[in-house]
Automatic annotation (TrEMBL):
EC number: 6.1.1.21
Keyword annotations: Aminoacyl-tRNA synthetase, ATP-binding, Cytoplasm, Ligase, Nucleotide-binding, Protein biosynthesis
Main subcellular localisation: cytoplasm
Region (Disordered): 1-28
Protein name: Histidine--tRNA ligase
Organism: Methyloceanibacter stevinii
Primary gene name: hisS
């Protein structure tokens, strides 16, 4: 058999795979994982406080169960990653956690408490073009209430979003929960003269508006018209609206001075809504939306959430097609700069809305539902740029160095002693010498190492070297101070006091 006959993966030099990460995906380091877990623990506490219960659904669903709420094309995997099973049925990786929830509720409707309140966290996948801050796999953390028709359920989720931000250390004034209604947008489309049965144009318009946080007003105007070419040269076809309809929509969304409805020196959501209703005229959809939103803002206000925290914004759309009523997005308001010092537009970090028709796809009966979703990666990215959840508080394990390879049993016993005391510890398992072992411990972020050579063994001692303190010795110019710190950086203790000696170092850094 020649080399060219070798199958991929069998070691042929010509068929070695390239070590490369697919576009739109990312690896996660230990530091990032710990930061994420710390943030998720805080979010979970808030969601549990509100009475939501955990639920887990599988990553793969039947494609028809997920529905086609992402960009609508002929092929079944447009917007989602799909494949065919042995029985030729289409399966897809979930693109959010809400569509699987609808399937779960429909399948278990008779046994579930109504309303049904659940939270869930896990990865989701989008078969879309990746870009800065836009990944093909990302994590969501959702809370949903199914079976509650009252707008009080929507108001509660807005308050949940605000409480979550503050629990994560975002002070009041550094975030805002923006609220709109799909019914108001329906009224806007009616006012623009778009026929109710022109579904394709309406969806294209809504998707264009939904990109405002990334593309700004000019980008939205281009997508409402002929289309837009991005920085890579790719062209996105627009809605093809004439200039007068584009002007009508953009004047409503971006040309309004919302503060002109201000009364008594305070911003008023309700007064803003009254002014908008006059703009939209006799739209029944808009009238229904105004009543719902007036009640929502009255409810959040009664609980002490002012318009500095939860406010109306007519440009909020939400991209998925299944929303039917109030929609909301949470944004961080401080100016955020990346590592290069450039200002970036982060967009929504926590969003959702009402979707009263999703469960009906399975049951034929309309089941009211509303939910909210945390964009975990985006929120963590924003919080870290604001100096929170850096993930660098956890130091590496204590490393027991191997001075004599014939005494591995002795060194392993030391490691077990430290672990039994609840301390993170590991035995160096490589084959390098002491200098390389020290470098290894440095790379692991170890606070200290344990050393025992033949002389220490005879004396029944171990040496403990503080790597953090030792790294700073070269910066000390005063001789007496240097000798004092040197003695603290490396010291001997009896073998029986190994745990106490290591704790002495760890206590310096609260590791």
């Amino acid at each position: 058999m020649s080399k060219n006959d070798d199958k991929p993966g069998q070691g042929s030099e010509n068929t070695r795979p390239a070590a490369r990460l697919p576009k739109g995906l990312q690896d996660a380091s230990a530091q990032e994982i710990r930061a994420t877990e710390a943030m998720l623990a805080t979010i979970k506490q808030v969601f549990e406080l509100y009475g939501f219960e955990p639920l887990a659904t599988p990553a793969i669903e039947y494609t028809d169960a997920l529905g086609k709420f992402l960009p609508d094309e002929d092929r079944p995997n447009a917007g989602v990653f799909s494949f065919q099973d042995d029985d030729e049925q289409w399966l897809s990786l979930r693109y959010d956690l809400t569509a699987p929830l609808a399937r779960y509720v429909a399948e278990n409707y008779q046994t579930l408490p109504k309303p049904f309140r659940r939270y869930q966290t896990g990865p989701v996948w989008r078969n879309e073009k990746p870009g800065p801050g836009r990944f093909r796999q990302f994590m969501q953390f959702d809370a949903d209430t199914v079976g509650a028709p009252s707008v009080a359920a929507d108001a509660e989720l807005c308050m949940l979003a605000a409480d979550t931000m503050e629990a994560l250390g975002v002070p009041r004034g550094d975030y805002v929960v923006k609220v709109n209604s799909r019914k108001i947008l329906d009224g806007l489309l009616e006012g623009a003269g778009l026929a109710a049965d022109d579904t394709k144009t309406r969806l294209t318009v809504l998707r264009a508006i939904d990109k405002y946080d990334r593309l700004g007003e000019d980008g939205v105007r281009a997508l409402l018209g002929k289309g837009r070419k991005d920085d890579s040269g790719d062209f996105t076809e627009g809605a093809g609206l004439p200039e007068d309809k584009i002007r009508f929509i953009c004047d409503f969304l971006f040309g309004r001075d919302l503060e002109r409805f201000e009364q008594d020196g305070s911003y008023s959501n309700v007064n803003t809504l009254v002014g908008l209703l006059a703009t939209l005229g006799s739209s029944q959809s808009a009238e229904e939306a105004i009543r719902d939103l007036e009640e929502l803002f009255e409810l959040v206000s009664a609980s002490g959430y002012g318009s500095d925290r939860i406010r109306f914004d007519p440009s909020i759309v939400r991209g998925l097609e299944y929303y039917t009523g109030p929609v909301f997005e949470t944004e961080l308001t401080p100016t955020i700069k990346d590592q290069r010092g450039q200002t970036i537009r982060l967009g929504s970090v926590m969003s959702g809305g009402r979707y009263d028709g999703l469960v009906a796809r399975f049951t034929g009966e309309r089941v009211p539902a509303t939910g909210i979703s945390v964009g975990v990666s985006r929120l963590l990215f924003g919080l870290q740029l604001l100096g929170k959840y850096k993930g660098d508080e956890t130091r590496g394990p204590v490393v027991v160095l191997v001075f004599d390879k014939d005494r591995l049993g002795d060194y392993q016993k030391m490691v077990k002693t430290l672990r039994d005391a609840g301390l993170r510890a590991e035995l160096y398992l490589g084959s390098s010498g002491m200098k390389a072992q020290m470098k290894y411990a440095d790379k692991r972020g170890s606070p200290c190492v344990v050393i025992q050579g033949g002389d220490e063994k005879e004396r029944g001692e171990v040496q403990i070297k503080d790597l953090v303190l030792g790294a700073g010795l070269t910066k000390i110019e005063d001789r007496e101070e240097y000798l004092k710190k040197q003695a603290e950086a490396q010291f001997a203790v009896p073998e029986a006091e190994l745990v106490a000696g290591v704790r002495k170092v760890l206590d310096r850094y609260k590791a």
